[in-house]
Amino acid sequence: TNFNYYVQYEQSNPVVALNGYKNGISMDTIYDSDLVMAFADRSVFLLENSFGQNIGEKAVGELLKIKPFLYKYIFEKSQRINNLYEILIRTDEWLYIVRKDPNYLNDMEKDINWAIAFNPNIPVFYQLKGEMEILQNKNNEGEKDIKIGCDMDNLGCNGNQAESYKIIGIAYYKKGDMASTIKNFQNALDIDYNSRKNGLSFTLG
């Protein structure tokens, strides 16, 4: 397949990128878990970034077609099962965001519960749970779970308050709550600014 070739188009022409990824899988190759995961991963990446928003319906339509295969590979205990759970949950989330069907939000909750029950030590599962709760208007619970995920993430935000505020802000952006988005991004900027200021003062002192 030419998946790697089409990565270069993700920012400049996401439609070309998505079509290229789509052409990389067919009924002959859709049973290849690596290809299905690669397609789902790149499609979700396009949706997660602002330059991919104009392909929302097209992307989620393709993701919906391969969603049964994601379940299949999870039930078969694929070696990449943690990644499969994350991709599946993000697929549920974007199906809900684009189509506004609460059944997809219910799917997201079910899949998050399965994922955490399977492996409770994966930080991104709690971050996604927090995003789901914010979409469900459970804002306090959502912010709490996102911070729990950040505190667990040794390679990512690792308790970094600014990073947790950024993730919370993104969750509100996905919900369409711009006031809360701006508030959390401002909190992140304030913490970054104060950290740099205090670090610079300490160095000069």
Write a structural description.
This protein has 205 residues and is mostly helical. It contains 10 helices and no strands. The chain has helices at 3-6, 14-23, 33-48, 56-75, 81-99, 102-118, 123-135, 139-152, 161-175, 178-204. α2 (14-23) packs antiparallel against α3 (33-48) and α3 (33-48) packs across α5. The longest helix is centred in the C-terminal third of the chain and has 27 residues, at 178-204.
Chart the SSEs and their pairings.
Blueprint (H helix, E strand, L loop, with lengths): L2 H4 L7 H10 L9 H16 L7 H20 L5 H19 L2 H17 L4 H13 L3 H14 L8 H15 L2 H27 L1
> Averaged pLDDT, please?
87
Shape: globular
Main sheet summary: none
Q: Detail the poorly predicted runs.
A: 200-205
The CA-CA distance between the termini, in Å, is: 57 Å
The gyration radius over C-alpha positions equals 18 Å
Helix content: over 70%
SSE-based structural type: mainly alpha
Order of helices and strands: HHHHHHHHHH
Strand content: under 5%
Tally of strands: 0
The number of helical segments is: 10
Give a short summary of the structure.
With 205 residues, the chain is mainly α. The protein has helices spanning 3-6, 14-23, 33-48, 56-75, 81-99, 102-118, 123-135, 139-152, 161-175, 178-204. Helix 5 packs antiparallel against helix 6, helix 8 crosses helix 9 and helix 9 (161-175) packs antiparallel against helix 10 (178-204).
